[in-house]
Each structure stands twice: as C-alpha cells, then as structure tokens.
Amino acid sequence: MTSSTASPVAPATAPAFAVARATTPRPAEERAAVLAALASSGGFGEVFTDHMARITWSTDAGWSGHRVEPYAPLELDPAAAVLHYGQEIFEGLKAYRHPDGSVWTFRPQANAERFARSARRLALPELPVADFIGSLEALVAVDEAWVPGAPETSLYLRPFMIASEAFLGVRPARRIDYLVIASPVGPYFKAGLAPVSIWVERDQRRAGPGGTGAAKCMGNYAASLAAQQVAYSRGCEQVCFLDGDENLEELGGMNVVLVLADGTAVTPALGTILAGVTRDSVLTILRDAGHRVVERAVPLAEVRAGLADGTVREVFACGTGAVVSPIGRLVGEDFDLPVADGGIGPVTAAVRRELTDVQHGRAADTRGWMHPLVHVAGVGQA
C-alpha cells in the first residue's frame, strides 16, 4: 500500500545545507554486510553512516553554517563548557524504508518541539523546528544508502547540541554546536520482541520536582547508569526508577504503561519524566481503540498488589529505540513478580503492531504522523 495518506504540516523552510561529501566512504560491499546483519546482530548504535549534519550558534551570529560533512571526531578544546558543566541535550528518532523504497521519519516536529523545551531548561539556544527537520532531510538525502529495509530495522537519528565554547565559569555558553549523526539499527533488545525483566530501583533517583527529568539531557542518563549495572547483575535488561514517594516514574530510556483487567491503561503522569513521543503516540492509539487512559501517580505497592491478584494484566515499555516492548517480570530487593503469564499481552501486541505498521509503511498513516525524507519518483508526492 502507499507509504502515507495524510500530509504532515510543514514547518517554515530551513536554510539550504551545504554538502561536503566524504572522500573515503564505507565501501558498498561493507555497508551491505552491515545492513544484512542488523536483524540478528543485537547491536544498537554501534555503526555510523558516512556523514553528519551540523549547524553552529553564537551570540553574535545566531544559527549559521548549515552543512552536511564527513562523519569524523569532534575537535573540542579541553575547556569546552560541555565537558565541565554538562550543557548538552539530545533527541532520538528513526528513518524507515517503506516498501516502495521511499524513506520516512515519525513525528519529527514533536521531537523538534521537545528539543526546544530541553534547550530552554539547559539555558541553550532554541533551534528552529525548520532547522531541526531540515537537518534530518539533508543528512538522510546524502546517506540514504544506509537506510535498511528489512523488518525491525531502521536508521536511528541522533540530533544533539553541545556547549563548545572554551571557558571555565558557571554561565551559559556563547558558542554551541548542533549535530546529527545516524546509525543503522536492528532490535533494541538482543532477544528482539520478547518480554524483558525490569529491576525496580528503590534507592537511587533519576529526577525530582523542579529538576531536569523532563529534559532530554546527558546528566539524566549518566545518573541512571549505576542502577542499570545493578539491574544487569540481577538478570534484568532495564531499570525502573521511582520518585520519593515510591511511585513509578520511567525506565532508564523508556516510559512505562500498565494495562488493567478492565482494559484501562495507566501510565505515570508527566512532570519529572520525559514526555516521550512514542508514549504520546501509544496513548493516542489506546484511546482510539476504546481504552480508558489514565495519567497519574502509580504507587509501586499498587503495582505489586495488582500483579499478585491479577488486576494488572499487562505492563509494557515504550520509546524510540524499542518502540513497544513487553515487560514479563518486575524484580526488587524483596519481590520477583511475573506479569500475568510472562508472555506478550494482547493489548501490548495490538498497540505495537499498529504503531510499527504505520512507521514501516505497511498501513495507512491516517493521523499524519509520518514525514517524508526521501521520495521515490511519482510516489508519496503531491
């Protein structure tokens, strides 16, 4: 079927991106071997394409120097502010190869708007939505050959912004670099679509009221890594953090949703957690399917009781990397509880199927979520 039936609202036009192509790109045979191995390799974000997009900001010139250039190490002064004060934000989204050969991405305007919110929280300049989307279009146009087409594969796009001014002093930086890099990926978890085990962290916190939990910045993820090591040591793939009142917040890199026996979907309310684009999309799909959706505090005690008495029938995680991933087991210092029979619940499976079918072009995009990056002649164009 056609790649998309709804036309997304286009942002203002971005300045043209100058292109400097790599003189020694990865040989076509090597690239093909990398793409062929994605579905079975279990590696995520380990191989990168030949180019990256870049824009520079300064207090004098604003955003300038829009370009695509060869992927290469960054040259940073040892006093660069990002290295000392952590002034950095990032995003994550994917490019999908559709059956007709065209390439699309999912809700990039939502990512661009969240990127701007993160920038405000970290005292960074806000990148215009047009520049954000334009950088994706420019990079994928140059590195289109890196977009895989096999099931469960995509080109992961990582926009990020760093304070590159060299100085020692606690103030917002006056020079910023924005870049986009790309990595062809397969399944986020090595087991693919299989229930994962989650360690519930009760001592370490990733965020608090008034903090940076709702921003997508490096510090939040650095603060999650010690607990993630504990999760691995307990045989779990991910960690779920709690707030100070022992309510569920989010996983290290994903939001979490519970499905109750009556079909109600419950998820932690926004505030100290990231407003996930996948989360918002999943909740929309659930509402459209007739499920009652509740965003509120979710006490750990309530979850434990619900798993024990059957009130909680399904639990799943959602995010750009894994899309929708079933959770089969919750583990803590004093409990080890399966979720229902430990399998993939019907609601989880239905939501994941509907979302991934739209993303990969197997179903019509009736909500206008997909944005074209590379057209095929005569296809998907007005």
Automatic annotation (TrEMBL):
<comment type="similarity">
    <text>Belongs to the class-IV pyridoxal-phosphate-dependent aminotransferase family.</text>
</comment>
<keyword id="KW-0663">Pyridoxal phosphate</keyword>
<keyword id="KW-0032">Aminotransferase</keyword>
<comment type="pathway">
    <text>Amino-acid biosynthesis; L-leucine biosynthesis; L-leucine from 3-methyl-2-oxobutanoate: step 4/4.</text>
</comment>
<dbReference type="InterPro" id="IPR036038">
    <property type="entry name" value="Aminotransferase-like"/>
</dbReference>
<dbReference type="GO" id="GO:0009098">
    <property type="term" value="P:L-leucine biosynthetic process"/>
</dbReference>
<protein>
    <recommendedName>
        <fullName>branched-chain-amino-acid transaminase</fullName>
        <ecNumber>2.6.1.42</ecNumber>
    </recommendedName>
</protein>
<comment type="pathway">
    <text>Amino-acid biosynthesis; L-valine biosynthesis; L-valine from pyruvate: step 4/4.</text>
</comment>
<dbReference type="InterPro" id="IPR005786">
    <property type="entry name" value="B_amino_transII"/>
</dbReference>
<keyword id="KW-0028">Amino-acid biosynthesis</keyword>
<keyword id="KW-0808">Transferase</keyword>
<dbReference type="GO" id="GO:0004084">
    <property type="term" value="F:branched-chain-amino-acid transaminase activity"/>
</dbReference>
<dbReference type="InterPro" id="IPR043131">
    <property type="entry name" value="BCAT-like_N"/>
</dbReference>
<dbReference type="Pfam" id="PF01063">
    <property type="entry name" value="Aminotran_4"/>
</dbReference>
<keyword id="KW-0100">Branched-chain amino acid biosynthesis</keyword>
<feature type="modified residue" description="N6-(pyridoxal phosphate)lysine">
    <location>
        <position position="216"/>
    </location>
</feature>
<dbReference type="InterPro" id="IPR043132">
    <property type="entry name" value="BCAT-like_C"/>
</dbReference>
<dbReference type="InterPro" id="IPR001544">
    <property type="entry name" value="Aminotrans_IV"/>
</dbReference>
<dbReference type="GO" id="GO:0009097">
    <property type="term" value="P:isoleucine biosynthetic process"/>
</dbReference>
<dbReference type="InterPro" id="IPR033939">
    <property type="entry name" value="BCAT_family"/>
</dbReference>
<dbReference type="GO" id="GO:0009099">
    <property type="term" value="P:L-valine biosynthetic process"/>
</dbReference>
